[in-house]
Amino acid sequence: MGKIEYLLVLAACVLVTLPLEFAGARVYRQPRRLVRSILPVGAVFLVWDAVAIAAGAWDFAPAFVSGILLPFSVPLEEVLFFVVVPVCGVLTYESVQLTMAWLRRRASR
């Protein structure tokens, strides 16, 4: 696997949680809300990564990343991580909320 391993893990995260959208989570159908929920935190952590990389306190194993570096030597995979993982988390959260609401309605019958 090597250089695409990180990308494959991110793709697996998306594929595993994608059915939640079709089950009613409606996360991808609200792009503004999604961007507002992940952009501020993602930006903070990307700056944090860039500072840590520049200081030599943090790096990425070249054998496991594509080699595509964005500004401040942050690998493409790391930027995608700060998008994919929160989106998967929001999808999961919304699905749990829907399930809990359904269970409450069912219990009140």
Description:
- It is a single chain.
- The chain has helices spanning 5-25, 31-55, 76-107; strands at residues 69-70, 74-75.
- The chain is mostly helical and 109 residues long.
- It has one domain (2-107).
- A hairpin with a 3-residue loop joins strand 1 (69-70) and strand 2.
- The model has no long low-confidence stretch (mean pLDDT 94).
Order of helices and strands: HHEEH
List low-pLDDT spans.
none
Number of strands: 2
Number of helices: 3
Structural class: mainly alpha
Radius of gyration: 17 Å
Strand content: under 5%
Helical amount: over 70%
In what order do the strands lie side by side in the largest sheet?
A: 1-2
- Cα end-to-end separation: 52 Å
| Domains (count) | 1
Characterize the largest beta sheet: strand count, sense, and whether it forms a barrel: 2 strands, antiparallel
Shape by Cα distribution: elongated
How would you summarize this macromolecular structure in one to three sentences?
The protein has 3 helices and 2 strands, in the order H-H-E-E-H.
